[in-house]
Specification:
It is a single chain. The chain is of the alpha+beta class. It has one domain. It contains six helices and seven strands. Strands 2-3-4-1-5-6-7 form a seven-stranded antiparallel beta sheet, sandwiched between helices. β5 and β6 form a beta hairpin. The radius of gyration is 17 Å and the shape is globular.
Length: about 190
């Protein structure tokens, strides 16, 4: 059985058109709380995933970066769209890049950023995808450095582990802003 990777995503700098476009794409089916890969593909590709003659898992790995995934808990937080993705083994980087590219056709200022954590904490990290800019990095955490008993008993310890992801996300965003400034000034 595959490890689950949990990816928390925020999509920023949306205008009304790109926001509406993303909301239509991410809206769960009636009666459901999540959006599965097949429904996403049907919407994104304006049709359907390949027929049974094509290996569906290979298609999803090639197109999205994970053989299965679900988008959960999608909501709007003052114009920033937030959602999380549960996927097999890895961050679905190709999915995030496709979303960025798709949204930037109408709005080049869209930024997709967030954090991720494997269920085993190996790896955890942060990412940012923007116009002409990609960065994804793991934290220095690994499964051997974690006190597992303490993690499940001590909320402060768990929060300190989470804080490593948040700090890395802030650092990646700061680097992105510095790059924007250098490109503008240079």
């Amino acid at each position: 059985m595959a490890n689950s990777m949990y990816t928390w995503v925020q999509v920023e700098n949306l205008n009304s058109g790109s926001k509406e476009k993303l909301e239509k794409l991410l809206e769960p089916e009636s009666g459901s709380y999540n959006l599965d890969a097949t429904t996403f593909s049907n919407r994104y590709f304006d049709g359907k995933e390949p027929d049974e003659d094509y290996d569906l898992y290979s298609f999803r790995i090639d197109e999205y970066g994970a053989k299965w995934w679900y988008i959960n808990d999608y909501y709007d937080n003052d114009g920033v769209i937030l959602f999380n993705i549960e996927s097999a083994w890895s961050v679905p980087q190709d999915l995030l890049k496709k979303l960025r590219d798709w949204l930037q056709k109408d709005n080049s200022k869209v930024v997709i950023r967030g954090t991720y954590e494997d269920e085993s904490y190996n790896p955890t990290g942060a990412f940012i995808y923007a116009k002409d800019y990609d960065d994804i990095e793991d934290t220095d955490l690994d499964a051997e450095s974690i006190d597992w008993d303490k993690m499940y008993e001590d909320d402060d310890y768990r929060e300190s582990l989470d804080q490593k992801r948040f700090d890395l996300a802030d650092s990646l965003f700061k680097s992105y802003e510095e790059t924007l400034k250098e490109n503008k000034d240079g």
